[in-house]
Amino acid sequence: MSSQDLALIYHSLYNLDLPGHIFPAHKYSHLYNRLKRDPIFSKWDVLLPERAEEHDLELVHTKEYLNDLFSYEHTPRTMYSELPLSRSIVDSFCYGVGGTVLASKLTNKHKFAFNMGGGYHHSFPDRAEGFCYLNDIAIAIRKTKETSPNHKALIVDLDLHQGNGNSYIFQYDDKVFTFSMHQGNIYPKKENSNLDVHLEAGTKDDQYLTLLYDSLQQIQKQFQPEIVYYLAGADPYEDDSLGELKVSMKGLKERDRMIKKYCSEQSVPCVITLAGGYARDSKDTVEIHFNTLAAFGEI
């Protein structure tokens, strides 16, 4: 595959200053440095996103919530975040949104567009939740709908946790199909996706991949997307500190290849975002994310 097939997007401001926090706040720069050490991908261009404009954020989020967010105040709308609230952290999210919006635009000329950030799937229109202040994928979808209101999007969320924000936002939109496969007995409080697969603790590679394959086959019969948004969470990993799934690094590689194959066979472009990852050894999280990049950029 050439760099014309896969666009790469990154901004140094994706990184957060969170000393001692469970969120691996510098995984973005570590992934970028991992890419730059690779003999193939180091030669590829990496594109710089712009900061998302507030009018784009308002396509999903309420003005009241955004006013609180940009005041950097803990209020009933911002308090459910598990991150600090500061100008630098809000800036990071705005650039992460900009990266996913740019990735969505780039699918007009690339098969795949990889934002080395994003995947903030817990954010609701009127409040923050988890490690998410802004919902980048929902904003990117609504941005596309400004000019193509009937554009059909499939969200494939393979993070450890349910993509409850996206499920809620698009619950009445028949042009957006939400699919979330996640550990069923942990955070967050679940919303209703178009297709939810609740995994048991201890789920291993074979069962995980079989359920994913069967789910994609089911979706194919129900919905024909024009674009796929893939949240390639690293946290189903067997040594993740927040989860109890037992998917190996090899299994996660196969997962990524399966999503790429699905998109290729359907002839639809794909936007890839990182989403979560909290491996006990943070190098594992970075390697899992790099493997996702490599899967979509495989020659």
UniProtKB/TrEMBL annotation:
Spans through the membrane: none
Family, similarity comment: Belongs to the histone deacetylase family.
Keyword Transmembrane part of the UniProt annotation: no
Domain (Histone deacetylase) ranges: 21-282
UniProt keyword list: Hydrolase
InterPro entries given in the database record: HDAC_classIV (IPR044150), HDACs (IPR000286), His_deacetylse_dom (IPR023801), His_deacetylse_dom_sf (IPR037138), Ureohydrolase_dom_sf (IPR023696)
GO biological-process terms attached to the record: epigenetic regulation of gene expression
Domain of life assignment: Bacteria
GO molecular function terms noted in the UniProt entry: histone deacetylase activity; hydrolase activity
Protein name: Deacetylase
UniProt entry tagged with the keyword Cell membrane: no
Species this protein is from: Leptospira ryugenii
Any matching Pfam family: Hist_deacetyl
